[in-house]
Amino acid sequence: MRLLKKTVAVFLFSGVLLNVNAETIVPDRPGFSTGTYTVQPKKLNVEIGYNYTKNDQTLPLMVLRTGVTNKLELDVMYDGLDIKHNDQKEYTWSSDLIIGAKYRVYESELYNITLMGLSSLPVDSTHNLSFKNMTPLAAVLWDYTFSENIGLFGTLQGSTYYDNERIYDFQPAVGASFTHTDKLGSYIELYSVIPSSSTQDTQKIIDGGFTYLINDDIQIDLNGGIGLNQESDDFVGFGVAIQF
C-alpha cells in the first residue's frame, strides 16, 4: 500500500496546461491529482522526481507513460530507493511495480473527463501475485477551463489494500492551475485520504508548485506541501519530464 500511495501522491498532476497541443509534453507530475490528458500513440513520457519529508527521502519516483490510441495510455510506475531518517539511516528498495491505464471519456474546449485504473504488482519472492497482495485503485479525473489562464481540476479516486483487514480509501482532490507565460505555470490543490477503518489516520494536505517548459519535450518542476493535521507530512520535491 505504501508504494501505491506514495507514487500516486507524487506523480498525479497535469492540470497546469489544459487543452494544449498534443505535440507539447503534458506530464503527470507534480501534485496529487491526475490530469485528464493521455499521451499520444508512438510517444513516450519518462518522468522522474525526488521527494523529501522530515523522516523520509524517495527517488527516483519514476513513471513511464505511452499512448496506445488517441484516448488510451498505459502507465508503469516505480518508487525506487527509500531512505529513512532515524538515529541510523536505513536504505530499502521498493519491490512493487504499479501498472495501469488512463482512458479519455469526454473531451471539449471547456471541460474533460478521464477514467484511470492502477494496481500494485508484487515482483519480489516474498509476495505471491494474489489479490490480497495487490492494491487496486480506480479514479474519475476532470478539468474545467475557467478562463484563458486559469483552470480548475480534480479527482475522485478510491483504493483498497489488505492490512490485517480489507481497508478502503477515498482520496478526493480539487485545485486550480495558472498559466503565467508560454513556459511558466503553477498550481495549488487540496488533497485528502479518508480510510474506511477507524484505526487508520485521515490525511489532509495542501500543496502547490511551479512548472517550467524548457521546450516542447522537456518540463521541470518544483513542488511542496503542508500537512494540515498531525497524520500528514510536510514535503518538498522536484522533477523532470521528457517526451520521446
Give a verbal description of the structure:
The protein is mainly β. The chain has one domain: Porin (Beta Barrel). Helices cover 4% and strands 59% of the residues. It has one helix spanning 2-11, and strands at 44-53, 56-67, 72-84, 90-93, 96-106, 111-122, 136-145, 150-162, 166-179, 184-195, 203-215, 218-227, 235-243. The protein has a 12-stranded antiparallel β-barrel. Mean pLDDT is 85; it is low at 1-21.
Name the structural class. mainly beta
Q: Describe the strand arrangement of the main beta sheet, using strand numbers.
A: 1-2-3-5-6-7-8-9-10-11-12-13
Uncertain segments of ≥5 residues (pLDDT<50)? 1-21
Percent helix: under 10%
Give the SSE order as H and E letters: HEEEEEEEEEEEEE
Shape descriptor reads globular
CATH arch. level architecture: Beta Barrel
| DSSP E strands, number | 13
How much strand?
over 45%
The biggest beta sheet reads:
12 strands, antiparallel, barrel
Gist of the model:
The protein contains 1 helix and 13 strands.
Short descriptors:
single chain; 244 residues; mainly beta; twelve-stranded antiparallel barrel; disordered N terminus
